Every structure is written in C-alpha cells, then in structure tokens.
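Sequence decides. Consider this:

===
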Amino acid sequence: MTSSTRVSADRHLVDAALAEAERGGFRLAVLGWAGAMTAIAVFYFVTISGPNSIKVPAVAVALACIGLAPLALVGRRGERAGRFAFFAFNVLVVSGLLAVVPISSSGDVPQNFVFFSSRQHYYYVVVAVSVLTLSPALVLWTGLCAVAGLAGATAWIADGMEHVVSYRDLPAAPSREAYFAIVHDPNFLNIPVRMNEALVVALTTAIAAFAVHRARSVVRAHAAVEERRSRVQRILGHYVPAQVAEQLVDAGRLAPQLRDATILFADIEGFTRLSERLTAPQVIGLLNGFFDAAATVFERQGGVIGTMSVMR
C-alpha cells in the first residue's frame, strides 16, 4: 500500500467515525428536543392558570412526542434530509408560538405583547440542541431558520396591527410618562429590538457552528497523530523491542541513559540434539512456549528482549 493510499484510507476511517458520531448526535438531539418540550410543558402547567394551564402543556407534550418521529429515520435512506427538516420544523414551532398562540386565555391581549414574554428565547434551545449533532452545517441551518422564523413572526404580527410603535417614537430625553406611554401602547412592537434579537441569534449560531467545526478538527488531528504513532510502532516493532519503539515514537530519538542493568544470555541445553529428533512444527511449538514464558517474566520487570544467532 502506497503512502497516499494509506493516508486516503485513514481519512476514510476518520470520516466514517465522524459520520457515525453525527448519527449518534442526532439521536441525542431528538431526545434533547423531546426533553426540552416536556420541561416546558411542566413549567407552564405549574406557573400559569386558566385554560392555558392545560392547553399549552398538552400541546408541548404532543410536540415532544411528534419530535421523536425522526428516530425512525436513523440509519435509513433520507436520514440526512430528515435532520434538516427536523430542525426547520422545530423553528417553525417556536415561530408559531410567537406569531399565533395567544399570550392570554382571554384572547384580548395584543399578540405583539408576546415579545414581553420569553418565547423568543426558545430559538436558543433549538440552536443548542442542534450542536449535539456535531454538524456545523446543521447548526448554521438551524440558526438561519431561527433568524428567518423570528423575522417572519414579527412581520406576521406587524401585518395584523394598524400601526407599529417603537422606541423611535420617543422624544429626545423622554420623561417617565412619555416613556411609559410608548412602552404600554397596544401597538408597541419595537422592530429595532427584534432586529437586535435576530443578530444575537445569528452570532450565537455562528459561534456554536465554529465550536463544532473546531471540535471536529481536533478529532481529525488527534486521529492522524494516533495513526502515525501506530504506524511507526508497527514498523519499528519489526526491528527493535517494543519499549525502544515507544521511546522513539514519544521522544523522536533515544535519549542517552545510564543505568545499572543485568544482561542474561539464555540457551536451551541440548537443543541441537533435541531438534534432530522433533519435527519442525514441534520445534516451533517448543520455542514459542519458551519465548512466551521468558517474555512474560522479562516484560513484567521492564526488561528488553533481544535475540542473537550463533554460527557453529
């Protein structure tokens, strides 16, 4: 096998290992999303009252169950496309919570007041779950969908309003009353703040994707080093004892050392006459048994085993 062929084979093994890691990571992501939706259901059930205390947790649990469906795609054709669809669906769920799900069971609170809640923060949960896949492309895709989802939900809400009020409508150096009048206006939406939220989501996604890419690079570099180390040990192992080979690999050279040592020369008495009476397989079996027994004792004491041929 040539050097280029061996390198190509090593890369293929690393790529296969990373692909398997992505597959396992996607399983964790699916389970993580289901767990997150279950936690949200419990939170709403405990903290809110009225009809929504049942409706919202029920919807969250249903979404958690639906979110487990992609597990059936793992290891099958279309799994990769299913991963992208899974995170796009999750972002769509969060966007729907912002755009159409009322923030009060009475239904008379303007939907633009949803941004005073923490629902838009659920985008970060989806992005965090995507990191478990160990795929930079999936993380970036999820962040892109989140930014688009936030923009779409904001546009949907703004389209249903007569006019939009934001901090831009404040006068210079506004008084307390003027500030409250703007913030408490039923048409308060504040588009610049929504744009800032989208920017933060995009930056968070970019950092997360870079972290995943960096982790994959470290894995590749570590695998390459280990493969080179193993290859050198295999090559040197044909010519020098294992302890010497390890020193050469670790330090790159043999360092001068001064030690008190004992050199033992061992010979099998009567081996020549014995070998004349035995068959070749029997001689090999005898030698292997002797070497195994001797090597076990020597290596336990940190010894180095060598061989010497004597011409007679």
User: Anything to note?
Assistant: Residues 191-236 form the longest helix (46 residues). The mean pLDDT is 80. The chain has two domains: 3-229, 261-312.
